[in-house]
Amino acid sequence: MRTSKEVKQSAPSWHAKAISYLICLFLVLAVTGCHGVSSNVSVNEWYVSAGNNASDENPGTHDRPFRSVRKALSVTKPGDMVVFSAGTYPCAEEKSPDGSPGLTVTLRSAGDGKVEFSGDGSQNLLVPGSYTTITGIEFTMTEDNPKRDGIYILRKEHINISNCRFFACNVGVKIFSSHHLSIQNCEMAFSGRYGVHMIGSGDGSEGHWDPADENSWVEIRNCWMHDAGWNVEGAEGYGITSNGAVEYLVIENCQIDNNSGDGILYEDWGIHTTARYNVIRGTGVAAIWIDNASMSIFDNNFLYGNNVGIWLSGEEDFANRYLNDLISIRNNIIVHNDWLQSIHPFTAEIQFSYRRLPVTSISTTILLRLITAPMWSQFSGAHHSQSSATSGFATTFSGTMPAGSASIEVLTLLVFISRIISGALLIRVIPGPVPVILPSSIPMHPLRKVTV
């Protein structure tokens, strides 16, 4: 018979007990996670076709598909996938349900040809819910002067749009106060007004910023946006616009061509935004217009043949708006951006129109243009203005710039050189046509040849 001392020594230590408890807990969680939770979720694949065998009376299987988008979306639940075969599908405010974390609703093409969601322009085509993926679909408006949008996103989150095309919509993708959105490898062609248009709180002169009512964490990558505004009389067409509060916006590796307004417009409460590695050509106003943005970076962009390369402005007359501040413009190539002088009275590579521009840095930026006229008398904080008829340098100032409020060493150097050799050829590094390299993943549709 063992003594009490021997029994105590043979008992498992508290370390061993703790390890045993953890192992048991892990096994319980593994079993319930793999079998208990997922077994209660029914995930379906629904099929839609424009073929003769399609009918909304069908069960929506691969062999007996639905015919309409509306029918398919009416039975879709979180985690479901809707697969569209090649064909044209009439759409008018088609609403997909919200998904949930881990249960994304997916709308995609079957890969057997073009899938077209089509409408007459009087209503939005698709209104997706949160946690939705949309890929491989073309959104088309058939009538002149469209009034509505291809995809309309209102107060949603976690939506991914990829490999889609938006043709002749008033707006390709319109976004209101939404979060965690991604638009990749898409084309916006001949939009009535905007390729991508974001609207948050603070939009307009009377608006006020509400951080609970903003767009945030929006990524636009590898997209081609062109020819906006030309098919709607009297409209200015924009590639990408941010009106109202937007935070953490990234525009990257996009090509933006031949828009009648701006390539990219930041207006009203843009914070922590980035535009980089973009090619912007042939815009009627500015390649990039930065109006009321803060703590933002614009670098490694190639801006060619626009009316204005980069326009910095701040509408500080409205006390509720931000000023442009903490802006960094760096490592850009800005060349020949004054070819449409009739569109705007000021033409330049970089245009300043403000009364105050605190803490802004412009560095390592290449400005290329012919020197054809004498320069202004000085480069300081005084008010400067010159018309397009006598503009000879890469930058036109129209506003008051307090001394020391901006660091523009490169521009200062170019002004000094231009005074010495005014009337001569300053620099021309890129003669003749400029090669433009597009991301290979963009679905190319050469509808109109770009001429610059």
Describe the structure.
With 452 residues, the chain is mainly beta. It has a domain of 251 residues. It contains four helices and 34 strands. The strands form three sheets. It has a 21-stranded parallel sheet that branches. Helix 3 links the parallel strand 1 and strand 2.
Helices and strands in order, then pairings?
Layout: H1 4-10, H2 14-37, E1 45-48, H3 69-75, E2 81-84, E3 87-90, E4 94-95, E5 105-109, E6 115-119, E7 126-127, E8 132-135, E9 138-141, E10 149-154, E11 157-162, E12 165-167, E13 171-176, E14 179-184, E15 187-189, E16 194-199, E17 215-221, E18 224-226, E19 238-243, E20 246-252, E21 255-257, E22 264-271, E23 274-276, E24 279-281, E25 286-299, E26 302-304, E27 308-313, E28 325-330, E29 333-335, E30 348-353, E31 360-363, E32 366-368, E33 395-397, E34 406-407, H4 409-420
Parallel strand pairs: 1-2, 2-5, 3-6, 4-7, 5-8, 6-9, 8-11, 9-12, 10-13, 11-14, 12-15, 13-16, 14-17, 15-18, 16-19, 17-20, 18-21, 19-22, 20-22, 20-23, 21-24, 22-25, 23-25, 24-26, 25-27, 25-28, 26-29, 27-30, 28-31, 29-32, 30-33, 31-34
For the secondary structure, the number of strands is 34
Q: Name the beta content range.
A: 35-45%
| Distance separating the two termini | 101 Å
Structural class: mainly beta
> Which shape, going by the Cα principal axes?
globular
- Give the integer mean of the pLDDT values: 74
Percentage of residues assigned to helices? 10-25%
Q: Supply the number of helical segments.
A: 4
Flag low-confidence runs: 31-39, 339-348, 354-359, 369-452
Largest beta-sheet characterization: 21 strands, parallel
Radius of gyration: 28 Å
